[in-house]
Each structure stands twice: as structure tokens, then as C-alpha cells.
Amino acid sequence: MVDHVRDASRPDFLSKPSLGGEQVLLRPVTADDMPALMPMLMDAETSRLTGSHDDGPLDERRIHAWYESRRQQDDRLDLAVVELATGSIVGEVVLNGWDPGNESCSFRICLVPGTYGSGLGTEATRLTVGYGFEKLGLHRISLEVYAFNPRARRAYEKAGFVAEGVLRDALLWEGERVDATVMSILAPEWFQHGGRPATAGHTAG
């Protein structure tokens, strides 16, 4: 029987890190985190901001199995966001959509209702992006943010993401068509600014 041998040139997504900041700790998400994350998954406003259409009642067994399997994923990273001041799980961050040919990933973050606006999401974003560039060796990390979510866009800009363009009418939500802005951050930009956000002029979109 041959053990799994990791290609040295391939990002090591299978090693799930714990990343500490001033306000949050990011650690591997598990099925035990599901009760704390369920308010996020059930929140109507969160569904709107993320463009998640209603697929019917949540299947808790399926959700449990999903979180239980996150540690075994070798092409993505799913981490729980823990607020250090309270020890509470306040959301999750994800690097997914790994494109090996272009050394890129997509990023998403979702927080539990009531935890917005305190800088937790911005720090969690910076920690994840830094890990993606410094440890996984990614070149580009991208995301999409809907036009009706300016708060999230500002948080992404604070973390160094740059607006690239607009996907017109990307979402149909309750009869309204909504644009999405594509944003990204590149490894040279991250290292040039020492892991800090670029200047306001650089992030303007």
C-alpha cells in the first residue's frame, strides 16, 4: 500500500492551520461547531447578502456531514472564526475553487448575525489571505460582492482587495437584478505592503 505523497509544488490544503490575531482565532471547522453556525445558515439577511436562494428546509444531517468532512479536503480550506474575547464561534472563512493551473483561489467569509461591524471579519480576512499567500503559495485570491452589500466591500478593501469589474445582473433576488463586483488581491501586492492594506488610491474601484 502506497502512502499519500504530497507534490511539493502543490499547496498543502490538507494541513489545516490555526491562525491567531488580536481579535480572532481561525481554526479548523468541525461538526461540533454546527450549533454555533446554524443561526448564520438560517438567517434571511445572510442569505440575501450572499445570494443564497432558498432550497427548502435545512437538512441538519447533511450539514453535519459537510462540516465533519472538512478536515479531509485537500483542495480547499474551511476555518471557524472564534472571537478571542468571548471564545464564541462567530463565523467561517473559506478558500475554495482552487485553480492549480493559475495558482488561484476564491475566498468567502460569513459571520453569525450580530457580530458585524467590530472588525472581526476584516481581521479574519487578512489572516486567511496571508496564509494563502505566505504558506500555500497562491498568486491570486478573488471574490464577488453584491451591490447591496457595501459594508462587506469596505471590509474587503480594508484587507487589500481591489475592485476589478462588474458582473451585471449577476443575481436575481426577489424580482430585482443585482450587480456583483469582482475583487481580488495578488501575492505581489500583499508582500509589497507587508500584509497591510494598500493605499486608498490602490483599492479604489
UniProtKB/TrEMBL annotation:
It comes from the Bacteria. PROSITE patterns: GNAT. Pfam families: Acetyltransf_3 (PF13302). InterPro entries: Acyl_CoA_acyltransferase, GNAT_dom. SUPFAM superfamilies: Acyl-CoA N-acyltransferases (Nat) (SSF55729). Keywords: Plasmid, Transferase. The keyword Transferase applies. GO terms for molecular function: acyltransferase activity, transferring groups other than amino-acyl groups. The keyword Glycosyltransferase does not apply. This is Acetyltransferase. It comes from Streptomyces clavuligerus.
